[in-house]
Design brief:
This protein is mostly beta strands and 205 residues long. The chain has helices at residues 9-14, 179-189; strands at 30-32, 38-40, 45-56, 59-70, 76-81, 88-93, 99-105, 107-111, 116-129, 132-145, 150-154, 169-171. Helix content is 8%, strand content 44%.
């Protein structure tokens, strides 16, 4: 399937009642860069180049070029541009747990009013428990609503040598603390049993 909305991944990826850091939405947006920026105060438009870092609470966006705009209502939006060799990256802590959402794509589009971010072209988004990857989504475009923690993903036309069909991909692990997670952990700690030959293959008489 080339175009697959995965809104049901809310339950799979959220793994519980925690949400993205609620206070992040109301924190100031800070921008740092290696090169001088262009600031248009009249149109509330700022352009930065060179290892640009945007922070807003626990949220961090890094890219080679980032444009920031402010709407008349005071909300910020940002477009971060990377490249195939050095994509733009995103990272944000989830509220109340030691978990992070992180991802990368050639282009990131952040909307401060709706607190959503779109990962465009060669997108990959992961949920980390500490430093361990718990879940991962990959596709041409991945959207993340950090308020409701809803993801959607589509394949699109972009194809790579490892994914010539432009298919979407999701890898999900059992919810932490669930019976399935405990069973998976127990199975992983056990050595693999030796293989046995069936009688027809000479394993019995």
């Amino acid at each position: 399937m080339r175009n697959l909305p995965l809104l049901a991944l809310l339950a799979a990826l959220a793994g519980g009642p925690a949400f993205a850091e609620k206070a992040d939405r109301f924190k100031p947006l800070n921008v740092e860069a290696d090169q001088p920026g262009r600031i248009d105060l009249l149109n509330q438009h700022v352009v930065f180049n060179g290892n640009v870092v945007v922070t807003k609470g626990t949220m961090t966006i890094r890219a080679g070029r980032i444009e920031v705009r402010e709407t008349p209502e005071g909300y910020h939006s940002a477009v971060a541009t990377g490249s195939p060799n050095k994509p733009a990256t995103f990272r944000q802590k989830r509220d109340g747990v030691d978990e992070w959402i992180e991802g990368e794509a050639e282009r990131l589009e952040y909307d401060g009013k709706t607190d959503t971010i779109r990962f465009v072209t060669n997108a990959a988004v992961r949920r980390l428990r500490g430093s361990t990857v718990a879940d991962e989504i990959a596709g041409n475009v991945v959207s993340y609503d950090s308020i409701g923690e809803v993801f959607s993903v589509s394949g699109g036309a972009a194809a790579t040598p490892t994914n010539p069909g432009g298919r979407v991909r999701a890898v999900l692990t059992p919810r932490e603390g669930s019976a399935a997670a405990a069973e998976a952990a127990a199975a992983a700690s056990q050595p693999a049993p030796p293989l046995k030959l069936a009688p027809s293959l000479g394993g019995g008489k």
